[in-house]
Specification:
Length: 381
């Protein structure tokens, strides 16, 4: 937004119009596999807390289109929280592979076990209780409580932050205005708390979107300060961008004569914890050069770059033929079995760079670009 632009400050009488928003939602609600639509909800159907929880965990840092593929696969394999809790963690991690932010998968499994062990197989009905479960923070607990149990709590994801920032033409970045945004949403929550939460999310995803604002079809337009300024895309005010640190490392791909690849399980803590990968070096800001796990005819197969939340990683990929790596704890995976391994996107890219094709799962086919779009206060484009 230009520095000399006028800013309409939040006014005590400027409140989100819940009736208008709900009327819009009743006509335009998105159909999503984990959602009970407003018409069915009015007819007495209630959301399944397991499906809502699963979708909310998946939607952290991830787009709706990608989540829908993984969600269907998860439900087909584990249709209940009891089934997920009883599953081996390795199976859950393998099913999650490609979805990114893998601590979510470990917490997902731990949360399912806690629900079965500590809550009799039923998700708690309040945001405060839900927040005590593994992997459930302020946003997720509020979303489940509102959507499933109509608790009148503020549900604020990235879409909602954008809607409120524009509605009030906030002069601060949304991150700095979180307390105000949460208070503004909380003051407007009606009895239909779940529908209201989903209506705000849908509005931000389809009408008041990051790169366009369809003010003519917005139920809040008449009282929107950014629209009054004629500059809805000037809000939220951008935060100062930070330079993402860069790290480097080396990845070593052992391939047997029959095409099988040597894999290992990563440590239980740290980046990509407990996931499956190939042997490699430490990731550091200064490249110390390759220290090969064993002697052999190593071929430099190129490099891959992968963007994590807090840094950018470039790995030099090395490939060698071997019978069995000495001193390495791991296993040989035939090429046909690679798709079922708990390989995160980074290591799928490494294998592809080394000339080892990892066939996509038939039930989902996420891209391997290393960039996923949701922040901890998630947006759902």
């Amino acid at each position: 937004m230009p520095h000399n632009a006028a800013v309409i400050n939040p006014l005590p009488g400027r409140a989100l119009d819940a009736p208008a928003l709900l009327a819009w939602y009743d006509r335009h609600a998105r159909e999503l596999p984990w959602r009970i639509g407003p018409r069915d909800r009015a007819a007495g159907q209630t959301p399944d807390a397991y499906r809502v929880w699963l979708s909310e965990i998946m939607l952290q840092q991830t787009t709706v289109s990608t989540v829908q593929r993984f969600f269907a696969s998860f439900l087909a394999r584990w249709p209940t929280v009891a089934g997920l809790a009883a599953a081996p963690r390795e199976d859950v991690l393998a099913e999650w592979a490609g979805l990114g932010y893998y601590a979510r998968a470990r917490n997902l499994h731990a949360c399912a076990q806690s629900v079965m062990r500590d809550h009799g197989g039923r998700f708690p009905g309040s945001a405060a209780q839900l927040a005590t479960l593994p992997g459930i923070g302020t946003y997720t607990s509020s979303a489940i409580a509102a959507i499933c149990f109509n608790e009148k709590v503020a549900v604020v994801d990235g879409n909602v932050e954008r809607v409120v920032a524009r509605f009030h033409a906030l002069a601060r970045p949304a991150r700095a205005a979180k307390p105000f945004i949460r208070a503004a949403v909380g003051a407007a929550v009606p009895a239909r708390a779940g529908d209201f939460a989903q209506a705000l999310m849908d509005l931000g995803a389809t009408v008041c979107a990051p790169r366009f604002a369809d003010c003519r079809n917005c139920p809040l337009a008449n009282h929107c300060a950014a629209r009054a300024l004629g500059n809805p895309l000037g809000f939220p005010v951008a935060s100062e961008s930070k330079t993402r640190p860069k790290k480097t490392g080396h990845a070593f791909v052992f391939e047997r004569a029959d095409g099988a690849v040597w894999l290992e399980r990563r440590p239980e803590t740290g980046m990509l914890a407990a996931m499956t990968g190939v042997p490699g070096s430490r990731w550091a800001e200064v490249d110390a050069g390759p220290r090969f796990p064993q002697r052999g005819s190593w071929r430099h197969a190129g490099e891959v770059t992968h963007v994590f939340t807090h840094f950018e990683l470039t790995l030099a990929v090395w490939h060698a033929r071997a019978k069995s790596p000495s001193g390495q704890a791991g296993w040989w995976s035939p090429r046909a079995g690679l798709a079922a391994e708990a390989l995160p996107t980074l290591y799928r890219k490494v294998l592809e760079q080394a000339g080892v094709t990892v066939k996509a799962r038939a039930d989902k086919n996420p891209t391997l670009n290393g960039r996923i779009k949701r922040k901890s206060a998630p947006s759902r484009p």
